[in-house]
Amino acid sequence: MTFELETAAHPENLKRVVIEPVTRVEGHGKVTLLLDEDNRVHQARFHIVEFRGFEKFIQGRPYWEVPVLVQRLCGICPVSHNLAASKALDMIVGATLTPGAEKLRRLMHLGQILQSHALHFFYLASPDLLFGFDSDVAKRNIVGVAAAYPEIAKQGVALRKYGQEIIRLTAGKRVHGTGAIPGGMNKNLSLEERDYLRKDIEQIIAWSQAAVELVKKVYTGRPDFHNGFGFYRSSFMSLVRGDGALDLYHGGLRARDEHGQTIFDHVDYSHYWDYIHEEVKPWSYMKFPFIRSRGREEGWYRVGPLARVNNCDFIPTPLADAERKIFKAFGGGSATQATLAYHWARMIEMLHAAEAIQELLFDDDLQSDDLVSSGERALRGVGVIEAPRGTLIHHYRINEDEQIVRANLIVSTTHNNHAMNEAIRQVALQYLDGKEMNEGLLNHIEVAIRAFDPCLSCATHAVGKMPLEVELVDAEGAVIDRLSKNSDGRCGV
Amino acid sequence: MTAPLLVFGYGNPSRGDDALGPLLLERLAALNLPHVELLTDFQLQVEHAVDLQDRELVLFIDASVSCAPPYAFSRLAANKDTSFTSHAMSPAAVLHAFRELYGEPPSTYLLAVLGERFELGEALSEAATDNLEAAFRLLENLCADHGHQAWDRFIMPQR
């Protein structure tokens, strides 16, 4: 752990390197590197636009609007917010889900995992992995992948489209769907819809297997480089099923430390605040969660695919579990703490999602009409799922008029906040000479950030809005170097 | 059967003027045009290239922070836009992905409508409301006479 490097006795003496925004992550970000007098990286600060505005936005709204409203948080993972909110509101309406409703939600969630992981790997990560971090930026993108590896690009499109089709058929619409509601689901999967999805699932599994093989081949081809890039050790947190299996929809919270020792296990998430505390830092709107029992200095952790694959005792689908074992055994476990191993773990999860989708498509409960339940009302509800990027917590309190009076959301990127800063710092220590900015440094920092697949909550989009500037500022505030990045991704002075 | 004309309006309805694309799509939906398919999403992604298959004509509608008021209407060419931030794939880049994956894309146009406020929870600004009305009148004309020769007459000179 390197928490002591997060604070400086005399921060006014530190130089700043500012990188804004980071490309190929969800939304816009800005990186500030604080240098000491010897031009060594002392601290990394990854500034992120985040969700506090949204929590205010939904106050006063009737609770039943929330599952639809929260989808507007994020254009990349609306289904994750829809499901986490619905789970929280299940508590408020006192519902125990029917088998049909739970399986339909699981199917929707697996579709989201499949499409999100496919997008990240094929379109954001594979250009770096296939062409190298320092290759020509004109080639290092999905268009370059499509030109050099057309079959891989087509498979990526098809995998993502299949996941989107699952979402459309379970949510009722491609976007802003209303499938999951407090207490259940408002539609089932018709036989016609089921057969439409069954038609391609074997191919989807085969392509997912091929994706695992691809990332495994790339990763193990340069094991020292991939293991060592931005390396550090940390704790991990994720949901696990009662028997310790990977479960992306429901379970108890498990946290393990950097040596694999259990910190807590099978924790009921409806009292998550007894285990996790959110710290505020003056330089960021984003909070820094930590595990209470370990304290603010040692308690930070990672979530997401790497955390889940490391934390679970097994994956309950055979092909993905076989790959998990290979991953865990590789190099005597050397990949299990590596920043770039997120990519490998993400593809293992995509394969699991494909296998689990197939299982569900042969389950008759998906055609059930018994989809909504309710029970004794409560004024508070907490919903947690494992979203594509990691653990997602939605927490609501309502009043007697059934209006939202308080909301607290801890999104995956917030859980990973400290961990991302640490990854950036480690990479900068390796690649910044402290005297001037260069494109190579920018590329490497972006690769480290992208490993986490952070979602920066920038669901807005408008033509022509893509600024980028990189500055090196000394302790007196003078700009000593500047690097800009224009809309085509190229850097210039 | 695939509708020959695809109108794809994108943006986040909860972020002020970013809702211009989806709102214009809602207005079009009320016209019940038989030859037009309407699709919406928060932002463009590479899989939207699949939605372009077997179309004769495609129109993207987005909010713009920089076009001349009230809107800009232009024909798009596939462009190797290498920024490819995953939340901000440009329509020209989607066309380029289409070309790489499936061959020559259909004739495609962009209707960019000027907006000025994009914060979460904001309503459509007064200026954007006026721009939406002007853009909708253009859309009615486009849908009434859909062919790229007819549409080319509406193309506006670049600022």
Q: How would you characterize this protein structure?
A:
The complex is a heterodimer of chains A (493) and B (159). Chain A is α+β, with helices and mostly antiparallel strands. Chain A has 2 domains: 3-48 and 430-492, no CATH class; 53-415, Cytochrome-c3 Hydrogenase, chain B (Orthogonal Bundle). Chain A has 15 helices and 17 strands. Chain A has helices at 52-57, 66-69, 78-92, 99-131, 142-148, 150-171, 191-221, 223-228, 295-298, 305-311, 318-329, 341-361, 412-415, 417-431, 439-451, and strands at residues 15-20, 29-35, 41-48, 180-181, 184-185, 235-240, 252-256, 262-267, 276-279, 288-291, 301-302, 380-387, 390-398, 404-410, 469-473, 479-485, 491-492. In chain A, strands 3-2-1-15-16-17 form a 6-stranded antiparallel β-sheet. In chain A, strands 8-7-6-11 form a 4-stranded mixed β-sheet. In chain A, β13 (390-398) and β14 form a beta hairpin. In chain A, α5 (142-148) packs across α6 and α7 (191-221) packs antiparallel against α12 (341-361). Residues 1-8, 19-27 and 457-470 of chain A have low confidence and may be disordered. Chain B is α/β, with parallel strands linked by helices and 159 residues long. Chain B has one domain (5-152): 3-Layer(aba) Sandwich (Rossmann fold). Helix content of chain B is 31%, strand content 21%. Chain B has a 5-stranded mixed β-sheet, covered by helices on one side. In chain B, β1 (5-10), α1 and β2 form a beta-alpha-beta unit. The chains are: A alpha+beta (493), B alpha/beta (159). Chains A and B meet through α1, α4, α5 and α6 of A and β2, β3 and α3 of B.
